[in-house]
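Hi team,

Filling in the usual template for the complex we talked about on Friday. All components are listed, including any nucleic acid strands or ligand strings, so the model treats them as one assembly.

SUBMITTER: L.P.
PURPOSE: interface mapping
COMPONENTS: two
RESIDUES: 497
SEQUENCES:
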Amino acid sequence: MPILKVDKINKKYEHFQLSDVSFKLEKGYIMGFIGENGAGKTTTLKAILNMIHIESGSVEVFGRDLKKDEQKIKENIGYMFGGIDFYPRKKLKLITSVIKRFYSNWDEAVYKHYMDKFRLDEEKRLHDLSHGMKVKYNLTLALSHNAKLMILDEPTTGLDPAARDGLMEIFQEIIEDGERSILFSTHIVSDLEKCADYITYINNGRIIDSSTREDFTDAYRLVRGSKKQLDVVKKELVSFKEDSFGFTGLAKMKSLSSLDSLQVERAGLEDIMIYYAKRGEK
Amino acid sequence: MKELLYKEFKLAIHPVFYVILLTTTLLLIPNWIFTVAMSYLLWVIVPNFFFAIAANNDTFFSVLMPVKKSDVVKSKIYTVIALELLNIIIAIPFAIANFMLYRGGLGMLEPNPAFFGFVLIMYALFNFLFIPGFYRTGYKMALPMTIAITGALLFALFIQLLPFISQQFNILFNLRTPESLMWQIGMLIVGIAVFIFLNSLTIKLSVERFEKLDL
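RESULT (copied from the run log):
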């Protein structure tokens, strides 16, 4: 049973829509949720947490329907939304004393353990913490009420490379026991290369692919060729860039047989994102 | 619900605001416009409470916690009601002192039971005009706050003017006779009834509007 199952979510806004967004996350894994700015990552995460009204589709967490068992489900979810702080001018001590009352399974010993481990000072105000420390504080809160699913919106944005790397290690530790899963959105591809088991890619409100990291990149190839060749294969490509020598484009692996005469190489996550974004511009 | 109420009082209401409740000492002034003494709460504490909620992403985080969405709204309204009742409770000793210190019949509405009935209606009216308006968006408060403060003020003005306009009103609600006292207690009961009725409408409307919002 997946820990999270998102099934055909649709939500229309004036200038944007989520269309049939579906994916699932199994217990004990980390999923990177990637997409350009404005692709619909935060909107999807909000839909998972029932903060927006979806027009159709469903969300199941721990095998329960979100709409029916929202309260029970939220007992076991940890979250963090980058850049949105809860009472930033108050001391952590006070914020914790308020938050812990909401969770029947709050474990003070776990809380103390992680506050020490992450070197978080309860006397500090949320406002005075760096972004990385804020993420750690949110993780501490989530772990203290024994959250099984962590939903983190852009936890690494604005962190320096060392802090990002440290955070990725913490993510790995959190899921080590096989009981927890992390879904985190990002547009920083190197984060995913370090720790994501699964990747879900959203582009312009649609899920392009959701699979293991290896399968995800295996499904695409970068192809190069002359301008003449481009006219023939144009339709088979996700998108392409032209230069004075010819073109470089992204192709799906399954359409490769018709592209044999071209120079082919493996595509990285970043290439895939860039070429899909380019397709959207056309 | 008690966790949410704890949150409102611990995080959203700064302790210094309780000092404002002492503006009820203004009830010790002889023959004054006492509805004003009861209005500072609406002008200072309630607006600041909602500013704090909007500025600190309170609603956003509250709905992420394991609580019913409707309770997120209800706890805010219960908090306002609790502050209003607290303001009245604090005002009562000063109202009694006023009675003991001065002789009545000087013209202005006295801080008698009817006065508190009217104050309850004023509070309920304020809540009704402000809170459901606020929950149209969950963050815009200038317009509903202006409407609510103006509405409560006009009501207060009307109440203050009544003893001068109507002799009958003065006899029924503003004398220190046993018969007048009975009418005043009647008015207090009407005030309590209106307070309960209008606030339950405020809760219903606010919850309905909040449920429709995308956060």
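MY TAKE: The longest helix of chain A spans residues 161-175. The interface with chain B takes residues 46, 49-53, 70-75, 77, 79, 81, 84-90, 94-95, 97-99, 101-103 of chain A (CB under 8 Å).

Thanks, L.
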